């Protein structure tokens, strides 16, 4: 067995990406020169590092439990990863296990023996037999099962699994006009899936390959597609990539433009409402407004002192940006300095979102806080502290004045690595619901178009649908990989989700 340091570095890099540590992954990738290796990331399966660690742990347990004659007796307590790499801990477990085996051979005369399953696991099967349990050694209890409310579980018949990506799928977004679902993956492709109602056919997919020029030929970039966004008419899709390029695609899969000005990965990308400009944020500390028609850089803004992580349009010509430098800047086209800057976060700012009227700006951070800002003042309007871990993303409801749902109150949703989602009444600055059914970090939330429901996606592989009025869980579906993104179609009848195992799936919520 042999492996190169490049292979080790790439698997660690992929683990950081899959776990949501995108900025750490980028820094590690630069320092370890991953881009200079010839490893094809599309061939590396999801969760490769965890798979290797699990196999190593099983091997270490086998070293302890399998005797010289080849027989195995089960450990009464599983070996932890830290114990497995600590020589003294392994030696102590070996001695304890030998004592246990001796006790099995020589049980006390008055002792009663029970049956203990002895299992040997391979990659695909588990072979079990029964061995006696010595007196004083507790019989392992059956694993606890989580109660599932059958009335809210979405049946498999209502879920369409879309397979084709060869690596984790970080993002997905519905076309605003039709049931086309776009997805972006670590396999250096985006895909457009036709989810129109036609039960007699398998959904069609268009593969948008992200290529770069090398040696006079186009070759796959082998870089993640990090962001994508449809224009307002739904006839163009913009994508951003770790290869530093933004691209504009037609709905038939034709590449319309390649936008090259950033000096490193693009982390976020948004169309304005009019559809004439695209806004991007990059690791090169800059944000760029692009002319969508020509594909040219209209203006580049260099106000951040560290990578820019997110951007959001306020109007058709003004926008906000946030960064790992803990700052938020509001900028306007053809103005050579920020028209407003907000400071107050004490760690990197992960996401920013303007409310539907463009009056209030919400921001969330690794400092575990959610802040609300107004152009009318320098300090935050609300400093909301309730989450116990980093807040990864936020979304405003499509409700309140100026929306299609003017009679419903405006609320804000926040998703955190503490496994919870919170709904906030921003006017009062209070949390109105805490949604607690997830068991792993929550990476994405999305409101239904009527604002009555919220979808959430977590690395526990679950998509939950909640009532925004009561905070109750109304529908739930468990997929086969950690969920990076959830999104609603324009009619509010379907939820799309992208997962770490390379699958995209669509939940049909009609007649549930």
Automatic annotation (TrEMBL):
| One Gene Ontology MF term | transcription corepressor activity
Q: Could you tell me the keywords of this UniProt record?
A: Nucleus, Repeat, Ubl conjugation pathway, WD repeat
Q: Does the keyword Disulfide bond apply?
A: no
Where are WD repeat segments found?
A: 162-203, 225-249, 259-300, 342-383, 384-434, 435-476
Q: Does the keyword Amino-acid biosynthesis apply?
A: no
Chief place where the protein resides:
nucleus
Q: Name one Pfam family in it.
A: LisH
Which GO biological process annotations does it have? regulation of transcription by RNA polymerase II
- The positions making up the signal sequence are none
Its GO CC terms are: histone deacetylase complex
The annotated region (Disordered) lies at 95-114
- Tell me the compartments it is located in: Nucleus
Spell out the family assignment given in the record's similarity comment.
Belongs to the WD repeat EBI family.
Q: What is this protein called?
A: F-box-like/WD repeat-containing protein TBL1XR1
Origin organism of this chain?
Answer: Papilio machaon (Old World swallowtail butterfly)
């Amino acid at each position: 067995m042999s492996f190169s340091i490049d292979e080790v570095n790439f698997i660690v890099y992929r683990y950081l990406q899959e776990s949501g540590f995108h900025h750490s992954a980028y820094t590690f990738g630069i320092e370890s020169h991953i881009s200079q290796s010839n490893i094809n990331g599309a061939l590396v399966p999801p969760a490769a590092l965890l798979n290797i660690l699990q196999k190593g742990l099983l091997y270490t347990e086998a070293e302890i439990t399998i005797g010289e004659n080849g027989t195995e007796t089960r450990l009464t307590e599983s070996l932890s990863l830290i114990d497995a790499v600590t020589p003294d801990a392994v030696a102590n477990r070996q001695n304890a296990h030998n004592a246990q085996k001796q006790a099995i051979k020589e049980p006390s005369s008055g002792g009663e023996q029970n049956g203990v399953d002895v299992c040997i696991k391979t990659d695909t099967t588990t072979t079990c037999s029964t061995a006696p349990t010595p007196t004083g050694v507790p019989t392992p209890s059956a694993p606890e099962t989580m109660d599932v409310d059958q009335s809210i579980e979405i049946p498999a018949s209502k879920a369409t699994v879309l397979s084709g990506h060869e690596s984790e799928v970080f993002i997905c977004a519905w076309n605003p006009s039709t049931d086309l679902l776009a997805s972006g993956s670590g396999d250096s492709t985006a895909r457009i899936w036709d989810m129109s109602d036609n039960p007699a056919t398998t959904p069609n997919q268009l593969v948008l390959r992200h290529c770069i020029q090398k040696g006079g030929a186009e070759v796959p970039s082998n870089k993640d597609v990090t962001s994508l966004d449809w224009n307002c008419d739904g006839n163009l899709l913009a994508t951003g990539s770790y290869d530093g390029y933004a691209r504009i695609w037609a709905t038939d899969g034709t590449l319309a433009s390649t936008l090259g000005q950033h000096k490193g990965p693009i982390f976020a990308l948004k169309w304005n409402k009019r559809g004439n400009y695209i806004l991007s944020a990059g690791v090169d500390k800059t944000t760029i407004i692009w002319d969508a028609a020509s594909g040219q850089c209209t203006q580049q803004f260099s106000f951040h002192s560290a990578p820019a992580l997110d951007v959001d349009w306020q109007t058709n010509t003004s926008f906000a940006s946030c960064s790992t430098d803990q700052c938020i800047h509001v900028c306007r086209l053809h103005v050579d300095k920020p028209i407003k800057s907000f400071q107050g976060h004490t760690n990197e700012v992960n996401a920013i979102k303007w409310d539907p009227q463009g009056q209030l700006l919400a921001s969330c951070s690794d400092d575990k806080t959610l802040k609300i800002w107004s152009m009318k003042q320098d300090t935050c309007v609300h400093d909301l502290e309730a989450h116990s871990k980093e807040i990864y993303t936020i979304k405003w409801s499509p409700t309140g004045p100026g929306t299609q749902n003017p009679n419903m109150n405006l609320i804000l949703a926040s998703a955190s690595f503490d496994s919870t989602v919170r709904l906030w009444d921003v006017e009062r600055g209070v949390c109105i619901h805490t949604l607690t059914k997830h068991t792993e970090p929550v990476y994405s939330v999305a409101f239904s178009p009527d604002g009555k429901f919220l979808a959430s996606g977590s690395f526990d592989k679950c998509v939950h649908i909640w009532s925004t009025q009561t905070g109750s869980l109304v529908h739930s579906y468990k997929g086969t990989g950690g969920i990076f993104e959830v999104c609603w179609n324009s009619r509010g009848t379907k939820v799309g989700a992208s997962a770490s195992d390379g699958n995209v799936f669509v939940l049909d919520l009609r007649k549930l």
